[in-house]
Amino acid sequence: MVMLLFPALLLTGASTVRAPHFAVDPNWPRPLPTNWLFGQVSGVAVDGRDQLYVLHRPETISDDEKVGVECCVAAPPVIIFDQQGRIVRSFGGARRGDHWPYREHSIAVDARDGSLWIGGNGDQDGFVVKYSADGRFLMRIGASGPTRGSNDTTQLGRPAGLAIDAVRRELYIADGYANRRVIVFDADSGAYKRHWGAYGRVPSDAPVAQTMAARRQHLMQPHGIALAADGSVYVGDRPNNRIQVFDRRGTWLRDLIHVPTTGGGTGGATGSVGSVWDLALWPQAVQTHLLVVDGSNNQVRLTDRRTNTVVASFGRAGPYAGQLRGAHAVAVDGNDAVYIAEVATGRRVQRFRPTAEKESRQ
């Protein structure tokens, strides 16, 4: 029998198992069909059957790659894989600007019915769309066009992260490329419910002095978002090198600072770098920790939710298995394996499985 004492120790027989290491699975997924190519892989999500939904950007494949009689074509923008890495189905891309974003960014799966939400960060992506589990268009929130500001409740502003509260039927959006807020909608009707900015305040789009103190009064680019079972809402503010933690109503609880020396941008239209690109709770059953994806430092950190202490990490810059190039998004399956989507020149999804170091008990 194994007694769970994580994060401190796992006790198994005569061995002490410390915080996990994450080992890349070099054989996952299986090769794509011979003429399919991934563009930048911007989003990943796991459904209730541990199928992985991969969102990529077909438009980022260059003409130089589309050469030869049989090679090559962009894969459909959504591909669903089973646990063995086999393709289950694929779809998407039709009617950009209406039923589909101009530039794919994020994907989230509703645990209740398997429906999914997709958002984009193209200049005219003022909306998100909802699809059924079998790929039928269901709904759109917002419309094609630029933002109308961080306090408009009918239009989005190049939305970044998506998260679904399947029990309370709410969709949370880190509305962060052109706006400075978190906004919440009813996941079934699409009706607006509430929104907030940094520290739970009403967001402002006023110019910001380029000092860290001034910037941290705003969510300069809320990018990743994760919901914990206890009601905590974790929002990654990428250029500010931090996570802001709220309750479900938007009351600010605390800041978690990550690698504050990481170069940041200014957020909004001018883009950002920063150290917090996406977030996920881990392990799935007890959610004691956060996985923090850092595409600037090519690293994924596992942190204690209570203390923000880093207890494990993996990844370094490089193109090979287990290395990272533009790590952008994260998902966790029922076996606590971690999936990392890579944009920029990475253009892939990798699976990392938790292992453990063992040492003899003294």
Oligomer: single chain
Report the sheet with the most strands, covering strand number, pairing sense and barrel closure. 6 strands, antiparallel
Total DSSP E strands: 28
Strand content: 35-45%
Distinct helical segment count:
1
Structural descriptors:
single chain; 362 residues; mainly beta; 4-stranded antiparallel sheet; 1 helix; 43% strand; globular; disordered C terminus
Q: Can you tell me about this structure?
A:
This protein has 362 residues and is an all-beta fold. It has one helix and 28 strands. The strands form seven sheets. It has a six-stranded antiparallel sheet, with no helix packed on it. It has a four-stranded antiparallel sheet with strand order 5-6-8-9, with no helix packed on it. It has a four-stranded antiparallel sheet with strand order 10-11-12-13, with no helix packed on it. Strand 23 and strand 24 form a beta hairpin. It is globular and about 55 Å long.
Helices and strands in order, then pairings?
Layout: E1 3-5, E2 9-12, E3 15-24, E4 36-37, E5 40-46, E6 52-57, E7 73-74, E8 78-81, E9 87-91, E10 104-109, E11 116-120, E12 127-131, E13 137-142, E14 162-165, E15 170-175, E16 181-186, E17 192-196, H1 212-215, E18 222-227, E19 233-237, E20 242-246, E21 252-257, E22 278-282, E23 289-294, E24 299-304, E25 310-314, E26 327-332, E27 338-342, E28 348-360
Parallel strand pairs: 4-7
Antiparallel strand pairs: 1-2, 2-3, 3-28, 5-6, 6-8, 8-9, 10-11, 11-12, 12-13, 14-15, 15-16, 16-17, 18-19, 19-20, 20-21, 22-23, 23-24, 24-25, 26-27, 27-28
